Amino acid sequence: MSSNLSRILDSVDPFIGTAATDLPAAQGLAASWWWPKAQVGNTHPGACYPLGMVSACACSGAYPTGYGLYGISTEGAPTRMYDDYLASGFTHFQQSGTGAIRKYYNYFRVTPMIEPLDSLGNRWRLRDEEASPGYYAATLENGIRCELTVGAKTAVHRYTFPESSSSRVVLDFSYGGLAIEHGTTVPLRAGIESLGQGSAQGTVVMEGIPLSVYLDTDAPGWRQLVWYDRRRVDGGTRLDFDYIRRTTLRPFGLMFMGPTRAGQVVEIRMGFSMRGTEQARRNLEQALPGEAGFDQALADTREAWSDYFSQVEVQGGTPERRQVFATSLYHSLIKPCFAQDESPFWPSKGPFVFDIATMWDMYKTQFPLLTALNPAKGADMLEAIVRIAEEEGNLPIGYRMARGSDRFFRQASALAHTVLADGFQLGLEGPEWDWALVHMQDDLRRGYGEDFTERGVVHPISHTLDLATGYWCTAIVARGLGDLKLADELEAKARNWINAFGPDGLLRDSSFYEGGRWNYSFRLLYDMAARIDLAGGDKEFTAILDRFFGFGADPVVQLGTPPFGTEFAIGLDLDRFEGLNNEPDMEAPWAYHYAGRPDRTAEVVHAALTYQFGTGRGGLVGNDDSGALSSWYVWASLGLFPVAGQNLFLVNAPAFAEARLRFGGNDFEVVTTGHTESGIGEDARGAAPRYVQSARFDGKPLDRSFITGTQLHGGGRLEIELGAHPSDWATQTRPPSASDRTDHARDAGARFQEFLP
């Protein structure tokens, strides 16, 4: 990587997305987009390890991460629970950017205090907050400076106390969830033990998961004891609860206490496991052997973040654009959580992954980015997904650190099939592919799949598209493994996607999850050529898209704070692009590529990058959804977009002059000529989109608007000439569709060969 390219790790601002959307008024095309869903990023600024099991953050009990100001918000601007940033302590395991996920974690609350134990649960104001990758700090209004860092399976707290005759660090094992109705989590069973000499351990069963911690502290001479119902258990070293009900729950935990002089520092080191306290202890000792503490943990975590960030370097861009890009990359690498050898549901070693929450957001952009940056992690994720099917009976639609069948089936169907097909075409070796195929085929009949199999259509109608795609992706794996008969049968079922569309070129009337038929009508299907023909052809399809994206439309007024009046119904009647505020719209801008209008894609994407992302706490237009929204920004800024399940990346005008990428373990470059710098928000007034005039890949002309995933992962040099006006580049040859395929090119890889440069 070139030394003059800007390192972006130090540009990350974890506070972006933690507050209500606060973006400059959009201009031009973006001003016509209407945002119906929650206008808040729902991120948190806590300490995170890249794709690690553990996070740690200040906890106020606010929705949905435990950090911040707000109550439940599903549409419009969020309403406040608090007037200021508060914390009752510092918790572990947080969601990132999700909405109504119903599993809110925030376990093992740690509270430094100089007040009596009766004050536990009070919320102190936060001052002088700081955050960077792997680090969070704040000062409580009682004067205690609090710093947090984490490893993959560990956390270290560092507290700097004022002078006090009775300082303490209190660990609440009973705490979990949020301070909202139906948001708390109550442990079912628990056992904690004070081991003496600054050490303790315990296990709580939360949402069906036995979560264990082993901890130690460096406060010599301090007393340590257990407590129950905010009262010390004098002389006691253990607490055990065989069965806890919500009506019988009383707070309980551990406490370290003693006098402090001004500026005295106390550290708490914690190791976590879902397989008992012994493994929790080993996790801590392996990560921080001997007397290694906060500084070593932070250095290790910063190095882990640097390893990822060194693979994505960009040239140029304003400081604000670089900060948004860096933070987007950071948010893209928080979830899912990888917990090697930690499955609480099966005893064998191997990958275990949770907080795929939810896959309907993440499979389009976040998973392809994860797999590009770390193919081994991508392979582990696929192996874990197949193992879930083996152990629990179905491939997940989403998966959290919780036991139960609540797997997001209302949102979508057969999404794991798309992820598995992507990995198969890239040659990832994680799962046993013969066995994966068995589960893919079996899973197609689950949920709404039975109706689809029998009738070729199912309502909600978007599940018809999901299941048809699932059949297509399963056929890719079957054909690649040599089962041609099965592949033919699956592909025949896959063609039933057409049953979802009506004569107007849009999806038929149905119920839709968090959207409408316009939002769901422009998915990038595996047969876009046939889908465009169904709408009447290129011209007619482009006209429908133009109406959806608001070309020539007047600016709209966004929703304020609930309750709403007529403005909500008026907005719905627009049938308009909902920007990056709503997940079903994420891939729609690239539908223009298939109609020979990449210039339109450039205009929409430019407007989104310019006006729907910003700096500051209010810099996200909607929920980040475990990094799905942020990873969209990363791909769009690089001038690329993954087409899920198709081993395909669409090419567009990048937002940076150059990028040096390490994808698939190989070097990939994006280099432009004719690039002009433009700011974001108010700094972009009058800035026009740039259009691709021509392109070359590895020195050869590229007159098509795509490359394959195999090319991206294999490394190469993509040169893009940009200009101020649309050109005829990529207007004749379209990205591949199923109906383009000839009889002699029937395997999943060969169907792209005729398009390679």
UniProtKB/TrEMBL annotation:
Residue spans crossing the bilayer: none
- This protein's superkingdom? Bacteria
> May I ask which residue range the UniProt record assigns to the signal sequence?
none
Q: Which residues form the Glycosyl hydrolase family 92 N-terminal domain?
A: 12-273
Q: Which GO terms describe its molecular function?
A: carbohydrate binding; peptide-N4-(N-acetyl-beta-glucosaminyl)asparagine amidase activity
Which positions fall inside the Glycosyl hydrolase family domain?
A: 279-723
The cellular component terms of Gene Ontology attached to this UniProt record, alphabetical and capped at eight, are: cytosol
- Region (Disordered) location: 726-745
Q: Which GO terms describe its biological process?
A: carbohydrate metabolic process; glycoprotein catabolic process
From the Swiss-Prot or TrEMBL record, give the protein name: Putative alpha-1,2-mannosidase
Please report the organism this UniProt entry assigns to the protein. Answer: Glycomyces sambucus
